[in-house]
Each structure stands twice: as structure tokens, then as C-alpha cells.
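Internal ticket - ligand job 404, 2-acetamido-2-deoxy-beta-D-glucopyranose:
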Amino acid sequence: MARWLAALAVTSIVSLVLGDFVIESSPENFDGMLRSPDVSLCEHLILPAGYPCSEHTIQTKDGYLLALQRVTSSSSRYAGGRGPPVLLQHGLFMAGDAWFLNTPEQSLGYILADHGFDVWVGNVRGTHWSYGHISLSEKDKDFWDWSWEELALYDLAEMINYINSITNSKLFVVGHSQGTIMSLAAFTQPEIVEKVEAAALLSPISYLDHVYAPFVLRMVSMHIDQMILAMGIHQLNFRSDWGVSLMDSICYSGVNCNDLLTSITGKNCCFNNSRVDFYLQYEPHPSASKNLRHLFQMIRQGTFSKYDYGILKNLRLYGQLKPPEFDLSRIPKSLPLWMAYGGNDALADLTDFQHTLKELQSTPELLYLEDYGHVDFILSINAKQDIYDHIISFFKSLEKHSSF
Ligand SMILES: *[C@@H]1O[C@H](CO)[C@@H](O)[C@H](O)[C@H]1NC(C)=O
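stdout (C-alpha cells):
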């Protein structure tokens, strides 16, 4: 009986959410470019901008095939040698393209290349550029059975291994948003962090219990995460018809979505509004529903832990009732960290950020940008002066033994 009632409840909520809304025809670029790429990121975006770019494919321990791009300067000044390797790790619903969406003078990927860095671009599983697996297809439920925990411990770990083995050098890591969750979790693992020279984290996140983005809180209170998993939707794709209608219905339920991005990320100061259509050709990328569930667990529980499967499965998997925490104090004090955070960032709230800092053993170098929202760190037209020049100085100050 209880089961039946629960099923009824879910069904009626679902029909409430999805059933009664006329889906406005989605903008053309929403149907655009998803599914396995026949054109690589290098070919699509970076080579046309005049930058040398090569594609690399790596395989994670659990069988995912990920694309990494290696980008170097277009200027002959650096034709001879390569500078130190830097890995760029994008955030949730984004992919490696995120670092190249503004002009070459404004985008971190190009700017680092032009400063002689050996730029490597990460793309996590499930994104447009990394859609492969040795045995699973995107249509399989198991293909989407992961959260940021796997992105940290398998994807990021494998990227770091690979770059380390090709370049024979420790590398710099730059992460944004979910890329910082992945980095901080991965850096608690000695066998990963020993290959990292230093890291610059944009909009750093580990604790999430003070998120104040209205759209996100609405999704949390509507239990959208449980609902979509109960419906058997394992791939979270806001370009799909139901993804679009899901967004519509959350907006309809009381959040002001006239400015959808603001209600998700906080107010971004420094966007180029005339480029939004171009951004939308690339973003958002798919992720796993389980990943959303994991993030919502963090918002609800205030933890920075592994995925919570519930008491019984936790006991079986972890040997304890609650999932083990990622212990930030295990990140070596010797790892230089640099962090930039924003006053209007509704996803990386100041209270949560202070919590992260308190747990770390080291004292990171900090940059506070009062006007910045969550996406400004990637897309602000002033990001070079505001942020990227500081990252480059930070990295160069650590490069002791090279003419670079
Ligand atoms: C904004 O984007 C448009 C269209 O791509 C471009 O022509 C313009 O130069 C950009 N403005 C700034 C300030 O970067």
C-alpha cells in the first residue's frame, strides 16, 4: 500500500511538473551539436582560431574514453620548446570548450598558450567531447552511474597521470566550479597530488550547504533529483525536450526565471550579451542524474563526502552507516593553492568558502572579486586583467628552473 501511494505521489508530481506545460519550440541551437562528435573540439573551435591543437584519448579505470586537447601558442615566439603543462578542468554542464568561448585575448585557454604554457584541456565523461566507453553506450543506464566522486578519482586522476607521463613533469591544475570539487577531492589522495605542482581554483567549492541560487534551491525542495531517478532518467540533458520542459516548469513554480542564468549562478557582472547565442552552441553539456543527486545531498546535509546510498548500502560499500568524508586536511600543506571567489556567486557562497579554507592546512593565496558571479570566472570580458594575469604570475613565481 505504501509503495503504491509513493508511486502515485511520484506520478502525480511528475505529471504536474512535466505534463501540463506546452513546450515552447526550443531554440535551434538546443538541438544542435550533441551526441558523439564527428568533429573534435580542436577542429571545431581551437584550430580555426589559429592555435595548434592535438587530440588525445585516454581510458579511465572504469572504461570511459575521454578526450584531452593539447593547445600551444600561435606565436612563433614559443615554437621551440614547451612551457610547463597546465590542465584546465571545467565545471558542471560545461566541457573543455568553456575555456575558449571568448576572444583569444579574453579566454584563459588561449591566454595561457600565448604565455608559453603547454595547455591541456580536460573533458569529463558524458560531455559532448568525451562520450565513449569501452563497452557501454550512452543509452545504457550504467553509462550514467557516476557522480563527481568518479570524475575526481577516475577522470581527473587519469588526466593527471597521462599528462604527467607524456610531459615527464608535474603539472599545474586550473579548476572552475565542479572542477574545483573534483580537484579538492583528488588532492586528498597522495598518489594523485604528488603529480601536481600547484593549483588555481576559480569559484572554489567543497561545502555547499549555503548555496542561495533560487533555481537550485527550488530544485532541491522539489526533490527533482529523486524524482528524475525514480522516473528512470539517468542522463541529465537540458537540451533534451524534457530537460527544457523541466526548466520551464521549475520557473513556472515560482522562481523568477526571466534571467535564468542569474537564478542559477548569481548575478554575473561582465558577460558579453551579444555572444550568448554562441555560448549556447556549446553549453550546457549533459551530466548524470546521480551527480545532481550527489550535489543535492551536499546541499541538504552540509557534507563533503562520498555518495550517500542510504544506510544499508553504505554499510555494504563503505563498512559504515554514513559515507566517508573527503578530508581536506589531507591535502599536503606543501601544495601551493591560489583561489579566486566572487561576491555575487550564488553557488560558491562566502560562508561555504570560509568553511573550505578552515579545513585546509595551507593558506591559499586569495583573490576576491566583489562583482563576480559564478560564470564570470570563465566568461567575463575583463577576466584577463581581473583574474588570469594573476594566475599566470602565480604559476610563474613557482617555476624555479626554466628560462620560461
Ligand atoms: C562581444 O561579442 C561580439 C560578438 O561576438 C564581439 O563582436 C564583440 O567584440 C564582443 N565585445 C567585447 C567587449 O568583447
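Auto-summary: The pocket of 2-acetamido-2-deoxy-beta-D-glucopyranose is lined by residues 272, 274-275, 381 (CB under 6 Å). DSSP finds 17 helices and eleven strands in the chain.
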